[in-house]
Structure formats: structure tokens, C-alpha cells
Please model this.
Amino acid sequence: MELGALAGSRWEETDRLRRLPDDVAAALVESGILRSLVPAAYGGGEVHLQQLLDAIEALAWHDGSTAWCAAIGATTGLAAAFLPPDHAKQIFGDPHAAAGGYALPAGSATPVDGGVV
Model:
């Protein structure tokens, strides 16, 4: 079953669980949308932003919650482009790896021996 149709058929369960059902989450990972903005060098889709927005819009037509998860996961995958290559490979090297979070560089860092604080 196509991801949108699957998500749309399960919206009530998603709402009741307050999370994606396991099979919907697995289908979301398998769809590749979560890795849309991950650079191709790390196995991602490296798609144009408009392609991602179109895919999220199409998914939202079926189920907003699944589309929200797709948007968060896909945009967080963009972090791979800003990581040192070894770290990006470690995090995003697995084709099923996905990240989710919110990134807003609003702090400051001070260099110290071995890293930053």
C-alpha cells in the first residue's frame, strides 16, 4: 500500500496512540522521505527542497501527523551536510537511519581541549 493511503487509513489509530503505528513508521522510513535532504554522499536523496515540500504536501492530504513526522525527520537529516564527514557517515551511513529533532543554532560555543563547551 502506498504510504499516503496507509497513513490515511490509520489516522484514527495514530490519533489514539499519539504516535505513528509501527508499520506506518516503518513505511515512512522505507519511503526514503526522511533522508530526502541527507547528502547523496551519505546515502541520502539530496533532493531539491521543492520536491520534499511537494511530497510532504501530498502526504499531508492523507494524514497530517505522518506528514509532520516526515517534515521533522527530513529537515533534521539536513544536519548531515554540516557534520564532519566521519560523524555524518556514522550517523547516516545506515540506509534506514533517520533523525528527528529541532535545530536552531541559538547558543554559542567556546573551544576547549578536545571539543567545545
Notes: The chain has six helices and two strands. The longest strand covers residues 111-112. The first helix runs from residue 3 to 9.
